[in-house]
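ok, trying the design again with the full structure, not the truncated one.
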């Protein structure tokens, strides 16, 4: 299909797909056109069987559903169900991590250990757990008990959410949106959106905000913090990204999905001497593991495992002909992988008790026997190596080096130096006008826009204008593939002020902060910057913005809403599916700011979107009465 692919490896693989006549996500997207206008505008409802109903936005058709729900109600209900689904996905991931920490705490022959005791203590203290002179396993056991409550508590509030800036917590309490627990808010969303319950769109969105907060400052944060305890808090490290990370001479195992519990063990087992010997016995030089989507980000951040590609590249990875195995767990795994795998020797394996694909081999993974399952899987991959057909091999050699592994903690160390961990230098750089502000550019890729152009063009425009960028998820993978995660990119692409800061501390102008649940790291950084002082007393005071230029998943909707609820100006490309309601549009992109300090913005042109974010950043600089920027800026407000 006609798409300008800026990434050479993808370009080559798209050609392979066309030559072999194998359908990809882009072909299916094209085949789906024209997509339903009612759905795109958020104007259809299937919440009961008096429907389905659809609202006619312009003509003389119905303006309300059979029950009387209007466009405002229908769009709001639909949106907060998206939030609930996204929050559920992130938080269920978090729940698995709690279970894994439980196993590690119990010790015995568990494959998991507590790798970061310092972080264990720090997180335990958030929950008021005594840490002094206590055994690690006892602290962990208490933490597991507290973490479990975050999911099912009936009254009170999510404890870890109280680590937000005090002014923010107070606002949430006043608005009645302090989340009680993850499950409770998700369930209430489903209840409220059942036929004939909540019909007032602002009231519905209010609860959507609460549900989203239960994700960002709840489930996702628990996932990130506990994963750090288990697998280690990331520190900057080097790695590489794109299809070229796979090797023709090695057995290639691709781990795809989201949860690191399995992939971490796979990475360990696959790189063992024992498996290397087995690989040599079948004629390969060893076993190589590469990640896809957020699983990639998880094992990259802590182990430096290379990244094969992002969401839209999953089918193409199989078409390289060298993927001896692709193991998947949950989320963002396309059922469309199966027909592609059928054309190649790739062994596709599902592993989660929650996710199967018809006709695909299922080897169920449970944390209790992690190592055994990992061995079984890696051996299967090794045995599949001899089935590789040389005529099927189309492996592009393209790959890019990168630095990844930034966390709220490592930003501390980096900017402050080893002896003085602090955010002061970052705050000062903003206050003095070297760094204009900060932006989080995150999220998916979507075939409805030119692949990666949204991420890359936006990020380049931001750093050119001295905006420090943090990135996660598939956006981070796109940045990596385009060389933006290298310190040199500061000299080539960043404005002079940002360049100076990057040079002084040796960081790229774009910091990879992990997977999508790790967006909670960005929340933590924002809270730390507020706490450091000099930039207002709430996140909404900061010269900062967020963006998901190519979003597609419900998780992205949940993330966007928790950023808005945290006081952040949040930009996406294609609008949320609610454009059929003028009231909702006005509310979400304007009036809501008055209530919560953050708001949504939609702009499909990534450069223009970056300019809107910069305008917001400048507005905040002005309100804080910060010094003018030291150096001339490429984009000036008023341009
Ligand atoms: Ni995030 Fe990660 Fe990627 Fe989007 Fe999917 S892999 S959890 S949802 S597509 S960024
Ligand atoms: Fe139609 Fe109302 Fe039922 Fe939705 S809930 S399908 S708008 S009758």
């Amino acid at each position: 299909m006609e798409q300008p692919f800026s990434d050479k490896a993808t370009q080559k693989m798209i050609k392979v797909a066309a030559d072999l006549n194998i359908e990809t996500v882009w072909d299916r997207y094209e085949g789906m056109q024209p997509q339903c206008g009612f759905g795109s505008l958020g104007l259809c409802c299937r919440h009961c069987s008096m429907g389905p109903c659809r609202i006619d936005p312009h003509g003389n058709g119905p303006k309300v559903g059979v029950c009387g729900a209007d466009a405002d109600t229908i769009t709001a209900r639909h949106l907060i169900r998206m939030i609930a689904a996204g929050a559920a996905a992130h938080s269920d991931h978090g729940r698995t991590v709690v279970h894994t920490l439980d196993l590690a705490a119990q010790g015995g022959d568990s494959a998991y250990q507590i790798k970061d005791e310092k972080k264990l203590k720090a997180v335990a203290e958030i929950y008021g757990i005594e840490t002094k002179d206590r055994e690690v396993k006892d602290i962990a056991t208490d933490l597991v008990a507290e973490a479990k409550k975050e999911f099912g508590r009936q009254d009170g509030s999510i404890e870890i959410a109280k680590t937000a800036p005090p002014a923010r917590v107070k606002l949430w309490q006043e608005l009645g949106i302090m989340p009680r627990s993850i499950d409770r808010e998700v369930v209430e969303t489903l209840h409220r959106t059942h036929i004939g319950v909540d019909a007032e769109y602002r009231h519905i969105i209010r609860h959507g905000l609460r549900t989203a907060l239960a994700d960002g400052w709840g489930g996702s944060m628990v996932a990130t913090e506990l994963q750090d305890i288990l697998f280690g808090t990331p520190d900057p490290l080097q790695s590489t990204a794109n299809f070229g990370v796979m090797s023709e001479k090695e057995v290639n195992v691709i781990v795809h999905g989201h949860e690191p519990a399995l992939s971490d063990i796979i990475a360990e087992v696959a790189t063992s001497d024992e498996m290397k010997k087995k690989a040599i016995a079948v004629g390969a030089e060893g076993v190589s593991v590469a990640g896809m989507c957020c699983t990639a980000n998880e094992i990259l951040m802590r182990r430096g495992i290379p990244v094969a590609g992002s969401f839209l590249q999953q089918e193409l990875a199989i078409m390289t002909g060298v993927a001896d195995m692709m193991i998947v767990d949950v989320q963002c795994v396309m059922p469309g992988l199966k027909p592609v795998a059928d054309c190649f020797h790739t062994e596709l394996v599902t592993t989660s008790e929650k996710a199967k694909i018809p006709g695909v081999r299922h080897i169920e993974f449970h944390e209790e026997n992690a190592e055994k399952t990992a061995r079984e899987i890696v051996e299967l991959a090794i045995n599949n190596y001899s089935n590789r057909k040389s005529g099927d091999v189309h492996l592009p050699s393209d790959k890019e080096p990168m630095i990844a592994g930034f966390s709220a903690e490592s930003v501390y160390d980096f900017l402050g130096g080893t002896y003085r961990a602090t955010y002061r230098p970052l705050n000062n750089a903003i206050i003095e006008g070297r760094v204009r502000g900060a932006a989080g550019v995150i999220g998916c890729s979507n075939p409805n826009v030119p692949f990666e152009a949204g991420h890359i063009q936006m990020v380049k425009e931001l750093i050119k204008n001295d905006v420090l960028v943090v990135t996660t998820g598939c956006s981070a993978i796109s940045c990596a593939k385009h060389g933006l995660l290298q310190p040199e990119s500061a000299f080539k692409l960043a404005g002079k002020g940002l360049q100076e800061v990057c040079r002084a501390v040796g960081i790229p102008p774009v910091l990879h902060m992990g997977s999508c649940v790790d967006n909670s790291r960005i929340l933590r950084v924002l809270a730390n910057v507020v706490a450091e002082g000099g930039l207002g007393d709430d996140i909404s005071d900061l010269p900062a913005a967020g963006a998901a230029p190519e979003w597609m998943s419900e998780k992205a909707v949940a993330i966007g809403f928790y950023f808005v609820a945290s006081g952040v100006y949040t930009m996406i490309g294609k609008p949320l599916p609610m454009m059929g309601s003028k009231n909702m549009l006005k509310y979400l992109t304007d009036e809501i700011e008055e209530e919560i300090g953050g708001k949504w913005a939609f702009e499909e042109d990534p450069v223009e979107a970056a300019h809107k974010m910069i305008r917001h950043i400048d507005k905040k600089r002005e309100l804080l009465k910060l010094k003018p920027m030291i150096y001339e800026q490429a984009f000036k407000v008023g341009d």
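Keeping the full-length input from now on. The two ends are 36 Å apart (CA to CA).
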